[in-house]
Amino acid sequence: MNPERELFRAYSEWRRLALAETAAIQSRNWPLLADCQHAIQDFQKLVSRLTLDARDEWKRKGEDPAVKEKDFQKLVNELIEITLQNHSLLQTARATAKTHLAELGEAGRNLKLLHRSYANGQAPLQPA
């Protein structure tokens, strides 16, 4: 097993999951989003362990870990960017859902007024 190669694979899989997370948010597939988030948490732990293993290997080979880690910085920066975009998408979806919920609540109140009016044999009240 090559820890550096395994670390690269783990980062690549994390990236794939982050992009799947984006698709889940955009399609409002909340179960898939939850699955992606749980898997990403697992990969965060795996990446931490593999990073330590890779550093040990680099030291054994006489390579500078700081130089080697720069090779991974592009992946890390991309993951940060995707994560920030996902957070923004999620905030937008949440705001949209909150607005829709308020609209549904208002429609429900209007239906109750209408129902009461007809149930009492009165002329319909004007909705708010």
Q: What do the pLDDT scores average to?
A: 90
- CATH class identity: Mainly Alpha
Beta-strand residue fraction = under 5%
The number of distinct β-strands equals: 0
Secondary-structure element series: HHH
Q: What is the number of helical segments per DSSP (H or I, 4+ residues)?
A: 3
Structural class: mainly alpha
The quaternary organization reads as: single chain
- What is the percent of helical residues? over 70%
CATH architecture: Up-down Bundle
- Give Rg in angstroms: 25 Å
Would you identify the regions where 5 or more consecutive residues have pLDDT less than 50? Answer: none
The domain count comes to 1
The largest sheet is: none
Lay out the secondary structure.
Blueprint: H1 3-26, H2 30-60, H3 65-119
Helix pairs in contact: 1-2, 1-3
